Amino acid sequence: MKKKEIKKLTKDQSLREIQKLKKDLFNMRFKKINGQIQNMAEFTLIKRNIARLYNNIQGKK
User: CA-to-CA distance for 43 and 36, rounded, in angstroms?
Assistant: First the structure.
């Protein structure tokens, strides 16, 4: 997600997106163990997006 997209989300939408990204990260860890993962850079992108969403929630208090 881009920063502009994240800023437009409400608090509830951000929380739902965080849950979705955490599930994706969890599944990617298993794929990594099994050697099925293609792009290792996705780990960093997902982690960054999660951090951005948490910052978005902090700013909306």
Answer: 14
